[in-house]
Structure formats: structure tokens, C-alpha cells
Design the sequence.
């Protein structure tokens, strides 16, 4: 299965997200990850979307998205050439005596402890998919109570020369 | 009112813009809407009032420029605006109220969208303070229509109205045209502000590609210059971009034959020997065979719809494909294009011709045309005359007779959907673009009568004839009233087979003659109905009376309908079974003993 990373620059107006997302889902695609936010230009927002598909006619979808009047520009990110990041909050069930173990794991992943409770601890981490999956795996041993993610954002790497 | 047939200004630009007497005045939102429409040069609106639109209607009451046509159903208003737009090339304007008024336009919007027709649909909406509260007559019309509009707006501020209306016309009329919906909460209508109308639109995120890529034009010209069996495949895009002349110029100079889609039927003069007419499901066998045999297919403003291609893998199997379309999503959607050309059809065809001239390309299709003539002679459309062998009226003959009685330069034929539509496509001859209006992509029964109304309002000096069916006509029959009160001399031929004929035909051929829910009774009596609406009514059963009745009907003053009775068993042939290859045709008529025998033995093999 191919996972397409689309970075879509849209007009910063109400209803735009629903047009974009509606078009994708009406054409039978599932959206694996979605994030939206303002950009350096106050008139524009950026939607980053990950769409897994086996379809060979994926180009038809990007053409259709481009056709939406509210879509300014759409770039399909090349995985090898893009910085892809996500922020995740993980609430780990952990008693006081094992808390340090979990904090150590967080440190190794350069994650932050953002909340500590009597029976749980919440960790904030950013990174690419592999890193976050690694962290999640290790924490699972303690028991994960809740995970919430921002959805991935992406940016093309700058040229090196 | 002036004849709007010839656009006096460039599409996508307002006729008056900021040069109106209302410019700079303080207006209410409702007045600003009317002033904006006036600045666009709108001369007619099709609509239906109601609570959330009443203020707009109140403002409209003072307009001397804009005529409002009160249709009898919002669906009728939408199709009427569509007919107006198809006949003129300018956006048709619809005005309705919120809730049911807005939702009643949905079929009309979808029909326009499928056939790339420019519409601006203004819907009243409940006030912003109660949006989302299930207020009386609230419906999320922007949400409901999102998949079937080119673009839409839910206005937030009264001051935004002029800019939004300008952009709506611009978006509707440029690029690949389509419907744009503007939803206006009613509290915006009384807000006052200083009115200023823009003279143009500039939308950073909307920049249709108009000019074709020069390199692609050269590649295409090279392919055309060396093709032995080139074929033009002409769609509605040619009509939309006013490219008929450019197309004919190219076709004639290099002697390239052309097949047409339903919407491309009037893109070429039907009498021209290079015009092979309709292709596809009910196209002629010779057009379909030409498609199968061609070595270069030049698609212009056509979208390889399934009604044309039949089984895609067998469609034009030998051809290299040049595809000219203004909409990049159409290119390589159904059939991969070897030479894709994104751009305006007229520009692309003109550029192609210039490039071919530069290369000194000369016609080299004599052999191909001889072969096509042979196919045409052997597999013409049926010509049964006026009577069937059982003594009833033969629809093919009747439609042909109608065609012969019309002045092709001064008539507009509008159809509904079904068998009668296909007979019209096969037997009505057209000379000029925008004179054959039919719901192609959507196949919307009920389109014909209101679209004829819109076309007649747009072109008061043309003879407008609607070819409908006994099923279709009943879907927007209320517009008979609109036509009567507006004194429009529209002629409606109801090809009455007491059936939902096209579905009946499918049941006959593919569902073991199990005629589920397709037989219509003799209700209503169309003559009494004509009477009730103040129309003249004619009826004919007997082929012997056909000519006389038809000419009396066409000559009648004011609106008239002809109840043209044909046997229920009549079938539209040839026909390609759905999903079959287009050279695999049921019921093609062949001329000459040998081909007849071949045909018959093929038939026996099935
Ligand atoms: C709104 C709508 N409903 C249903 C259909 C399906 N349909 C296609 S043709 C047809 C029959 C049309 O009957 P009539 O108008 O009498 O035309 P005929 O085929 O008999 O000439 C039907 C029901 C349609 N195209 N549009
Ligand atoms: Mg019928």
C-alpha cells in the first residue's frame, strides 16, 4: 500500500477543510492522518494529509483537489525528501516506584514529561513515525491509558548545495 | 430586450462593472445584490420567492434592467437558467428562497454541473444568528450542493456581496464552466454599506489554463501530419469555447472526419460530409466503426464518457490519442492520452492549424474517407419513412420530418431524456452551435420544457422546439404555465409511446421482456392539459396526417404541444449494449444483400 503525503495550501476560510476532506472521502479514500494550521501568509492555511491507497489512479485525486477553487497549491511530498513530524501525548499508567524508568525512556527519546499524577504520567514527544512508534512500543509494557496525536505535518528539505 | 445570443463582451468580465449609476451609493444588502447583477449585465433571472428571499425580491421590483421570470417550481427555474446559459454562453441566474426552495434546485444544479453549464444560483438563507439551529426553512444548501457545484459561498458580511457575486460570475463562466451557488443569510439583506462593484476578478487559487502548451501543439501537429486514419472526437467543450469555426477549419483543410457526442452535436454543421454524427451507445454503426479503425483520435472538449466509449479496453484500440481539454482532470481519466493538451479548445485548435500550416501539411485521408463513405453507405441510420410496418407513426421518420421543417439557422431544439432524445440526436440536423440543448451527463428527465423556456427567453427570435416524452414532460410540466403567461411561442413535441420507453427498451433487450413499472397510461390527456394551460394542442396517430398536423402545429401562434403517438414497441437502434464494445452493435441497419446477410448471421450467432 502506498502512503501519499499531500501538502495542500488552501484559502484560510470557513468551509474549506470540509470541501477538501469531503472530496477525498467521496472518492473512496481513507484519510490516515490530517492536520491543518495557518501559514506564513495569513490568507492561507496548510492541510497535511496522509492517504493510504492501492489505487493507480491517485493522480486523479490530486487533480480533482487542484480543481477546487479554494485550493491554491498542492504538493505531493516525496518521503525521502521531506521532513515529516508528529506530536503525540501519551498517558502511561505507572505507579510511583516505576516512574523513573518511564522518565528515563522519555529522555532517551528526547520526549518531555508534561504531567505527573498518582498513577500515571503524561509524556509529550515529537518526531517521525519510527521514533514515535519506538517510544510507544517501550511504554506499552507499562500500560498506555491514552494516546492523542496531532496528525503529521511535513516540509520539503532544503537543497544542500 | 436585445438578442443575447452573441455575447457582446468577453466571458468572465462584467458588462458594466463599476460603471453603473448605483456605484458609490449606500445600499442595503438586498439592493446591492440587484445592483451587482445589473453591473454584471444580467437581463433575466429565473426564480421563485419566499421568506428569506423576499427582501431581494423587493429590491428587484425596482430594477428596470432585470426581468424576473417566475417559474412554477425551483427545479424549473434552475433548468430554465441552464437553457438560457446553453443558448447564450452566459451564466444563467437563479434566485430562490431557503430550505425547500433551495433544495428544489439541486437536480438543476447537478444537471448544469455535469454538462459544464455556467449558473449563478442565489439562495436565501436564515439569518446568521440562527444558522445551525434547525430554524424554519433552514437547510444547509452549501453542504448539500458541495459535490455538484463548481464553487459556492456562504456569505458572512453584507459588504462581501458585490465581490462574491463578481467572483461567482467569473468562476461560473471561465475555465470549464459550471454552477456557482451563493447562500445569503437574510440579515445581510438589510445591512447598509457603500456599494462598489469590481471591474474584474482575480482569484489567486483559481487560474484555469487557457493557453495550450506550444511543445504539445507541435507534438500533436506532427502526429496529425502523419496519420493515415485520423478522427476528430468532438464534445461539448467545442461549443462552450466557441471553437466550431476553428474546428471546421482544421477538419476541412486536412480532410479529417469527425464524430460527435450528444453535447457536441451542434459543434459542426450536420450536413458537412466530414461530420459523421453521433458516436457511442446510440451512435451510427459507421461512426462507431470509424472509431474502432482510426489510427489517431483527436478528442476535443470530450470526456470519454461511458455512453461514448462502451467497453473501454476495446475503444479505439488502434488509436494514438490527442486529448484537448481545459480541465486537466479529464485528461487520461478514462483513456490515457498520448498527447495531452490542457487549454481552451478554440485556442488549441487554432494553434494546431497554424502549426500544421507552417509544416505545409496537406490532406492525406482520401483512402480513409472513401472507406468511411463505404461504411456510411452500408450502415446508415434506419430510414423507415413515416409509417411503421404495423401502420403506426415511425418515430425516426417523424423526427426527420420535424428536422426538415425547421430552419436550422433559426431554430433551437431542446430535448428531454429517453428514446425521443436519442432519435432527436440521430435525426435532427443542426448547422449552428448552441442550437441543440440536451441533458447529457446527467440525463435529467424534466430538463426539456424549462430549458426550452430559458432558451426562448434568451433568443426571442428563434423558433424553439422541445422534443419530449410522455414520461419526461410530466416531470416539469408546471412550466407550461410560465411559458403561457410569458407568451413564449414554444412548440413541444411529445413523442408519446405510453411508456418510459428507454427503460422499456432495456427491459425488452436485457431483462427478458419483464416490463416492470415502465408502461404509462393515457393519463393525462395532453390535449385537455394544453387547453387548461392556454396552449394549443394537436394530436396525431396516423402517418397519413403527420405532415399536415406537424406543419399546422409548428405554425401555431403562441405555445403549442403535439401529442405524437407512436407504438410502444419502437426501439432506438443501433444500440451498443451497456458494457459492450462500441463496434458490437445491436440492430444496425445494413444496406445491400451481402452486408444484410452478414448482419443477419451475426445476429443469429448471438
Ligand atoms: C429524473 C429521471 N428519472 C429517471 C430516469 C431514468 N430514465 C431514463 S429514460 C426514462 C424513460 C423516459 O420516458 P419518456 O420521457 O416517456 O421518454 P421515452 O424513452 O419514452 O421516449 C427513464 C425513466 C431519468 N433519466 N431521469
Ligand atoms: Mg415515453
Sequence:
Amino acid at each position: 500500500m502506498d502512503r501519499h503525503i499531500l501538502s495542500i495550501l488552501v484559502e484560510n476560510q470557513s468551509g474549506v477543510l470540509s470541501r477538501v476532506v469531503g472530496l477525498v472521502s467521496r472518492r473512496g479514500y481513507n484519510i490516515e492522518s490530517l492536520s491543518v494550521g495557518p501559514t506564513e501568509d495569513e490568507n492561507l492555511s496548510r492541510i497535511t494529509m496522509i492517504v493510504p491507497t492501492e489505487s493507480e489512479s491517485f493522480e486523479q485525486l490530486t487533480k480533482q483537489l487542484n480543481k477546487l477553487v479554494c485550493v491554491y497549491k498542492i504538493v505531493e511530498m516525496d518521503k525521502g525528501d521531506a521532513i515529516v513530524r508528529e506530536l503525540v501525548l501519551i498517558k502511561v499508567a505507572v505507579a510511583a516506584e516505576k516512574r523513573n524508568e518511564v522518565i528515563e525512556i522519555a529522555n532517551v527519546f528526547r520526549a518531555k514529561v508534561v504531567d505527573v499524577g498518582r498513577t500515571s504520567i503524561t509524556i509529550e514527544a515529537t518526531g517521525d513515525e519510527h521514533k514515535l512508534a519506538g517510544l510507544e512500543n517501550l511504554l506499552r509494557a507499562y500500560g498506555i491509558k491514552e494516546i492523542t496525536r496531532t496528525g503529521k505535518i511535513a516540509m520539503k528539505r532544503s537543497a544542500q548545495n | 430586450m436585445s438578442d443575447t445570443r452573441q455575447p457582446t463582451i468577453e466571458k468572465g468580465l462584467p458588462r458594466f462593472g463599476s460603471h453603473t449609476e448605483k456605484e458609490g451609493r449606500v445600499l442595503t444588502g438586498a439592493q446591492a445584490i440587484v445592483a451587482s447583477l445589473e453591473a454584471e449585465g444580467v437581463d433575466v433571472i429565473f426564480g421563485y420567492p419566499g421568506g428569506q428571499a423576499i427582501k431581494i425580491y423587493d429590491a428587484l421590483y425596482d430594477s428596470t434592467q432585470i426581468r424576473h421570470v417566475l417559474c412554477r417550481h425551483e427545479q424549473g427555474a434552475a433548468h430554465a437558467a441552464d437553457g438560457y446559459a446553453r443558448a447564450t454562453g452566459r451564466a444563467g441566474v437563479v434566485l430562490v428562497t431557503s430550505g425547500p426552495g433551495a433544495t428544489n434546485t439541486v437536480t438543476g444544479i447537478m444537471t448544469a454541473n455535469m454538462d459544464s453549464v455556467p449558473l449563478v444560483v442565489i439562495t436565501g438563507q436564515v439569518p446568521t444568528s440562527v444558522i445551525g439551529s434547525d430554524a424554519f426553512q433552514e437547510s444547509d444548501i452549501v453542504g448539500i450542493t458541495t459535490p455538484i457545484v463548481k464553487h459556492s459561498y456562504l456569505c458572512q458580511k453584507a459588504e462581501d456581496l458585490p465581490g462574491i457575486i463578481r467572483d461567482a460570475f467569473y468562476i461560473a463562466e471561465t475555465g470549464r464552466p459550471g454552477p456557482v451557488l451563493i447562500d445569503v443569510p437574510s440579515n445581510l439583506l438589510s445591512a447598509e454599506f457603500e456599494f462598489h462593484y469590481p471591474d474584474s476578478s482575480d482569484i489567486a487559487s483559481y487560474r484555469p489554463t487557457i493557453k495550450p502548451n506550444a511543445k504539445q501543439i507541435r507534438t500533436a501537429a506532427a502526429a496529425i501530419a502523419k496519420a493515415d486514419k485520423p478522427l476528430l472526437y468532438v464534445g461539448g467543450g467545442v461549443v462552450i469555447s466557441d471553437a466550431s469555426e476553428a474546428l471546421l477549419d482544421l477538419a476541412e483543410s486536412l480532410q479529417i472526419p469527425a464524430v460527435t457526442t450528444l453535447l457536441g452535436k451542434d459543434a459542426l454543421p450536420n450536413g458537412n460530409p466530414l461530420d459523421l454524427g453521433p458516436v457511442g451507445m446510440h451512435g451510427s454503426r459507421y461512426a462507431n466503426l470509424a472509431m474502432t479503425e482510426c489510427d489517431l483520435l483527436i478528442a476535443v472538449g470530450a470526456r470519454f464518457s461511458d455512453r461514448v466509449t462502451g467497453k473501454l479496453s476495446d475503444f479505439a484500440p488502434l488509436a494514438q490519442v490527442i486529448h484537448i481539454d481545459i480541465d486537466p482532470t479529464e485528461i487520461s481519466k478514462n483513456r490515457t492520452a498520448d498527447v495531452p493538451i490542457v487549454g481552451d479548445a478554440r485556442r488549441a485548435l487554432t494553434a494546431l492549424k497554424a502549426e500544421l500550416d507552417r509544416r505545409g501539411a496537406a490532406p492525406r485521408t482520401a483512402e480513409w474517407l472513401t472507406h468511411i463513405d463505404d461504411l456510411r453507405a452500408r450502415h446508415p441510420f434506419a430510414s423507415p419513412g413515416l409509417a411503421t410496418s404495423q401502420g403506426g407513426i415511425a418515430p425516426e421518420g417523424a423526427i426527420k420530418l420535424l428536422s426538415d421543417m425547421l430552419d436550422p439557422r433559426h431554430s433551437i431544439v431542446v430535448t428531454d431524456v429517453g428514446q425521443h432524445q436519442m432519435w432527436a440526436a440521430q435525426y435532427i440536423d443542426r448547422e449552428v452551435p448552441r442550437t441543440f440543448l440536451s441533458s447529457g451527463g446527467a440525463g435529467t428527465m424534466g430538463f426539456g420544457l424549462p430549458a426550452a423556456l430559458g432558451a426562448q427567453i434568451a433568443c426571442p427570435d428563434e423558433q424553439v422546439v422541445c422534443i419530449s416524452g410522455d414520461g419526461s414532460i410530466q416531470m416539469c410540466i408546471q412550466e407550461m404555465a410560465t411559458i403561457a403567461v410569458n407568451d413564449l411561442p414554444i412548440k413541444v413535441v411529445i413523442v408519446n409511446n405510453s411508456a418510459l420507453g428507454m427503460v422499456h427498451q432495456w427491459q425488452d433487450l436485457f431483462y427478458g421482456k419483464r416490463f416492470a413499472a415502465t408502461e404509462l397510461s393515457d393519463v393525462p390527456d395532453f390535449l385537455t392539459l394544453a387547453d387548461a394551460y392556454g396552449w394549443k394542442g394537436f394530436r396525431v396517430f396516423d402517418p397519413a396526417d403527420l405532415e399536415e398536423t406537424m406543419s399546422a402545429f409548428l405554425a401555431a401562434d403562441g405555445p403549442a404541444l403535439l401529442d405524437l403517438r407512436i407504438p410502444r414497441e419502437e426501439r432506438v437502434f443501433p444500440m451498443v449494449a451497456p458494457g459492450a464494445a462500441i463496434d458490437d452493435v445491436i440492430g444496425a441497419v445494413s444496406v445491400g444483400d451481402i452486408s444484410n446477410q452478414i448482419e443477419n448471421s451475426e445476429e443469429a450467432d448471438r
